[in-house]
């Protein structure tokens, strides 16, 4: 069956790259990008089908799904951790309301659904090192509350209604196309821009704070790979731990210094984002994803840093 894919939140950090990548893979006319933003910024998404869809409005999702005979929804529209702490009501409405609406449309139309969870689905009482696939989840942020509830809701729609729901717990994603949208791990993107432009970076996350991270090409690969995986082999459908590396700001700065010897890092710690980071794991165990659908990232810190700096130099015309 030809895939007809709707991407929500397609103008965000993941969506801008996933849309282009999926169009190459599945055909330009088979991937419909959507977002709440009415005007696609110049150059974003490189053309192609685009619809305005506010995921809080179920009719808007349903009408686009019917218009294009969509049979797979990649649901990326969300409010991330730092913005979610500033606007918890909005985070609840968009993250829970949006997911519920997407799942309801999927139930009615028999579409498959991919939704990313996050390392934010864990909390301070979770074992922080080599965090197991199945473990204690008591997050202390609104974003984390919506992520763990979302994992459960997706499991429910699979068990109760047979909706083909799948998902991963992404770590912090690092990319050069679109800037991140207000999370806690954003420092690990901003540092590359500032290293190239100013040879220095002031980190809002303190030294010694390790978090899992991944380069965007591996994240895109994870989404497409999991959606193509044999359903009979999936035990953990909606919340696979996936990771590619774990580092703190000092380790990241030392890697950048190998390319830009004058680079220096300083600290001006933001208590809100530091508290969020402290509540998340230091490193994940992603063996279930490796076993159940062959997850295997290609980039480590060294190869990602080489590629990020090269691509950003071109983008920033430096
Ligand atoms: P982002 O903030 O960059 O993009 C989110 C997009 O959603 C934006 O373009 C925004 O305009 C759109 N949006 C907001 N409210 C909307 C609404 N009501 N209706 C429709 N669109 C709306 O986020 P991202 O980094 O691309 O993340 C996508 C998904 O991946 C989210 O579920 C996020 O929790 C998850 N995730 C991201 C990361 C990461 O590091 N980027 C890590 C873990 C999980
Ligand atoms: C955030 O920091 O909010 C995101 C995430 C890890 O979910 N990047």
Summarize the structure in words.
The protein is of the alpha/beta class. It has two domains: 5-171 and 215-241, NAD(P)-binding Rossmann-like Domain (Rossmann fold, 3-Layer(aba) Sandwich), CATH 3.40.50; 174-213 and 245-282 and 299-315, UDP-galactose 4-epimerase, domain 1, CATH 3.90.25. 43% of the residues lie in helices and 15% in strands. It contains eleven helices and 14 strands. The chain has helices at residues 13-26, 58-67, 81-86, 88-109, 142-161, 187-198, 216-228, 249-257, 271-279, 287-293, 301-315, and strands at 5-8, 31-35, 50-52, 72-75, 112-114, 117-118, 165-166, 168-170, 172-174, 200-203, 211-215, 240-241, 245-247, 264-267. The strands form four sheets. Strands 3-2-1-4-5-7 form a six-stranded parallel sheet, sandwiched between helices. Strands 6-8-12 form a three-stranded parallel sheet. The radius of gyration is 19 Å and the shape is globular. The N and C termini lie far apart (46 Å). The model has no long low-confidence stretch (mean pLDDT 97). Residues 8-9, 11-15, 35-37, 53-56, 76-78, 80, 94, 98, 116, 118, 170, 172-173, 180-181, 183, 185 line the site of nicotinamide-adenine-dinucleotide.
């Amino acid at each position: 069956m030809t895939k007809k894919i709707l991407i929500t939140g397609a103008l965000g950090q993941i969506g801008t790259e996933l849309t282009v990548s999926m169009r190459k893979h599945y055909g330009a006319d088979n991937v419909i990008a959507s977002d709440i933003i009415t005007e696609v910024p110049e150059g974003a998404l490189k053309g192609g089908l685009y619809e305005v869809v506010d995921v809080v409005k179920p009719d808007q999702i349903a009408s686009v799904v019917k218009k294009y005979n969509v049979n797979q929804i990649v649901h990326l529209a969300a409010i991330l951790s730092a913005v979610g702490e500033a606007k918890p009501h909005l985070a609840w409405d968009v993250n829970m309301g949006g997911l519920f609406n997407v799942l309801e449309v999927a139930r009615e139309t028999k579409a498959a659904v991919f939704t990313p969870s996050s390392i934010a689905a864990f909390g301070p009482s979770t074992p922080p090192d080599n965090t197991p696939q199945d473990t204690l989840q008591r997050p202390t942020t609104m974003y984390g509350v919506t992520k763990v509830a979302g994992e459960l809701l997706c499991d429910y729609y699979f068990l109760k209604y047979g909706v083909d729901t799948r998902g991963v717990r992404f770590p912090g994603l690092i990319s050069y196309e679109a800037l991140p949208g207000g999370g806690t791990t954003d420092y690990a993107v901003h540092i590359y821009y500032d290293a190239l432009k100013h040879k220095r970076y002031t980190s809002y996350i303190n030294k010694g704070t390790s978090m899992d991270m991944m380069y965007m090409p591996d994240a895109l690969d994870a989404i497409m790979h999991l959606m193509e995986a044999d359903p009979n082999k999936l035990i953990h459908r909606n919340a696979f731990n996936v990771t590619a590396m774990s580092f703190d700001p000092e380790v990241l700065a030392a890697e950048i210094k190998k390319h830009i010897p004058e680079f220096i890092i300083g600290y001006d710690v933001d208590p809100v984002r530091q508290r969020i980071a402290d509540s998340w794991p230091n490193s994940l165990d992603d063996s279930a994803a490796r076993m159940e659908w062959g997850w295997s990232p290609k980039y480590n810190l060294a190869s990602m840093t080489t590629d990020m700096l090269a691509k950003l130099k071109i983008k920033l015309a430096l």
